[in-house]
Design the sequence.
């Protein structure tokens, strides 16, 4: 099983990106292969429908999504919605790459939990013909602390991460039986 | 009365931008001052919350919104949502610039009418504490033809444009009595 | 100024209804006239588009909204949305009664704050051509305690109530100058 | 494979109900078992969280959903949202009955296609932990004609119905391999 994680923040040490990095660790501990697309480290340019050939970074992202069995999308919540940086990246994708795949939506918000961005994100995923995982994850306010090893300091958050990851890999195994990870 | 129009496409001759240019003509014919922010001609860079000072183009847009009495947002519909290019531009703004002002949402979509992007856009506007005009405008499919003078070729579309513009200026006059345009 | 408050719960002592009753007290203390429509005490029957004449209770509600200068809608959050009981009541209304009026959306939720129901409610209000107040109110979890006098026990909640009510009466005064309440 | 179809209109000969009845015919022609819950013929009472035991009709619906492998929800679009009658019925359900099951959302609207109600419905389904089918179906305006045999008169609509049904049974077979229908 191969998962692509797209981190949609454009801020250094963004909590949504830290959360996705921790999730990558958990996936790997479960023998799931991962590709990490960090839109801060390697931003993709503003999407222009007139351009026939996407640039190198956008191409890398498109290929990573195409090759993945499932997708994790992480975003800060700006104005009750996903970041423009993430939406811009998603504008490069289509149902060719996303269609039929399990998608997990994750947000991090300075205020209360970022349900508004997750709802908008799931509407976008449906439009791309992805299969939204009904389990999602939103960290708000003080739940957004990470230790030196990259794990959330709050035990409840760590458990919730495991739960949404298990739900995603379970859904992915059903949608793509060939991608099932052999149990150790 | 001063209106800022933000055209959220990054495509040459985008129909959502043509529509906003036509709307600008109609506003001017009604003695309303306008500022046009074209995110294709003058793209604003990817928003980064770490940057304390926005670049020149972003600053121009922020100031234009700040000085306006009302706002028109135009977007293509990508994946049932607004363009990443528009969302990225909105990420620079806050309730300081948008709060309490009338906002008109406009979309153009290759398929049927783009209600999904308008709904998401109004949720974003509310978050910025703008006052959403209940009249909005979405052009779908074949309604998106424009003549040599920049007007929509369809008479029904032209009438609808006048109606949403009148609704916006009426709402703006109520919210900001000092901005009222003297009747000729 | 005349406000109608519609309490969309069908539960005895629902916190969303207690909140609306407290809001009614605050409105009255500001010399604003109120009508209270409690869908628990006086439920309206399931809406049937074939019926030409609504029953007595539905007629009362329709008339109350028609005569009001502004509207407060209160709902519990069920499954990330407003109660069926409230949606059913709104199905009797049209832009004749709601159009152009300021509308305040309020929710109460057992879990975290009920942003999902408020977002859906504002999309419904826009469809009815109401003017959504960008200030809304959602009580979650432990914020939902009320004292013997009907006031929220949490001081922050009481202040927030005053703030959203002031925002609503201010918006209503602008949209309907004739409805302005004389300052004492 | 067993599918429950819930028709959320409260109007005689509602097009959303006619569409669901046609879908039931198509399911049966594919050897899929069906249960039809018609909220017009057999309305469920207004949901009251204080009642510990739902009435007979609500109990029938709850059991039908519980026993189904997948769910089809049909609704008219009222005010950009699902009918109060359908929302009220959904308020009786929980993730016990809906969780992990494939759900197809279908709407019928007098105006253009009813995307706004479908988006809200999918947000509700996610909250119930159902798996939204990314293929949905919305009939608008003149597409809503049915022949004497109950089929849509428009060939494109009939094909679209087959497509969304195939997508649903395919998704259901993946989520619940035991429910797979043997190929003839």
Sequence:
């Amino acid at each position: 099983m191969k998962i692509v994680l797209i981190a949609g923040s454009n801020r250094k040490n963004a909590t949504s990106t830290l959360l996705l990095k921790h999730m990558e660790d958990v996936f790997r501990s479960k023998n799931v292969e991962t590709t990490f697309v960090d839109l801060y480290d390697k931003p993709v340019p503003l999407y222009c429908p007139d351009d026939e050939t996407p640039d190198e970074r956008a191409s890398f992202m498109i290929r990573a999504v195409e090759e993945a069995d499932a997708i994790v999308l992480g975003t800060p919540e700006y104005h009750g919605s996903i970041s423009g940086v993430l939406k811009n990246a998603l504008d490069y994708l289509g149902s060719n790459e996303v269609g039929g795949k399990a998608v997990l939506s994750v947000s991090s918000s300075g205020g209360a939990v970022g349900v508004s961005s997750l709802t908008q994100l799931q509407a976008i995923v449906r439009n791309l013909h992805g299969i939204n995982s009904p389990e999602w994850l939103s960290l708000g306010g003080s739940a957004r602390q990470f230790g030196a090893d990259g794990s959330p300091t709050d035990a409840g958050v760590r458990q919730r991460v495991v739960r949404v990851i298990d739900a995603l890999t379970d859904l992915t195994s059903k949608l793509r039986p060939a991608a099932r990870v052999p149990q150790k």
In short: The longest helix of chain A spans residues 155-175.
